């Protein structure tokens, strides 16, 4: 019998530390302003949201962590998605890099406390929606692929009753609200770029599911909204 590979291989552990611990702290690391409360709030929400969502998802679907840990290693992942993941990761990190530089160099005037409160609410809502999708959907993979090895089927419960891609909707909210929380008008440029990449990836994934996942076309006919109900 073949020996099972551990989920936390050195590569996976390094990726986890980099993207879950280091990247959220980029604004603080770049600006060196350790009294920046909004940046601490962003890092705390990001790390806590990751940990709590994975614990809850693993309790419901024990195999989902192994699925997501493989990430770029899936042999049947779409080649175009491997490129998209790299582009989106860099674009999303650039939001935080620009915000850190903005704080360091004073490029942008501060937003009002009202805007910051609104952005914090939107970020929390984005993480909540994305976490709900992850917990509800056993097939919530990090790559676009048809998971025939896991009995892939259409999920239409939980947030999938309202929109077809709630995970992407949650990420979109977070990307666009982050520059407001971090007082960076300039960070809106990479935030919009990331949002555009996300929307195009959603379109490509939706087309893949329509073509290759049994039952998805019927689900899409019943539920027209991909990300924003009544709009798209």
Descriptive tags:
single chain; 232 residues; mainly alpha; Four Helix Bundle (Hemerythrin (Met), subunit A); 9 helices; globular; disordered N terminus
Q: Can you describe what's shown?
A:
The chain is mainly α. It has a single domain, classed as Four Helix Bundle (Hemerythrin (Met), subunit A), CATH 1.20.120. The chain contains 9 helices and no strands. It is globular. The termini are far apart.
Helix-strand blueprint:
Blueprint: H1 10-22, H2 26-31, H3 37-60, H4 64-70, H5 79-105, H6 113-136, H7 166-181, H8 188-212, H9 216-222
Helix pairs in contact: 3-6, 5-8, 6-7, 7-8
Return the string of H and E elements. Answer: HHHHHHHHH
Mean pLDDT: 92
Class from helix and strand fractions = mainly alpha
CATH C-level name: Mainly Alpha
**Low-confidence runs:** 1-5
Give the number of DSSP strands.
0
CATH topology: Four Helix Bundle (Hemerythrin (Met), subunit A)
Outline of the structure:
The protein has 232 residues and is mainly alpha-helical. It has helices at residues 10-22, 26-31, 37-60, 64-70, 79-105, 113-136, 166-181, 188-212, 216-222.
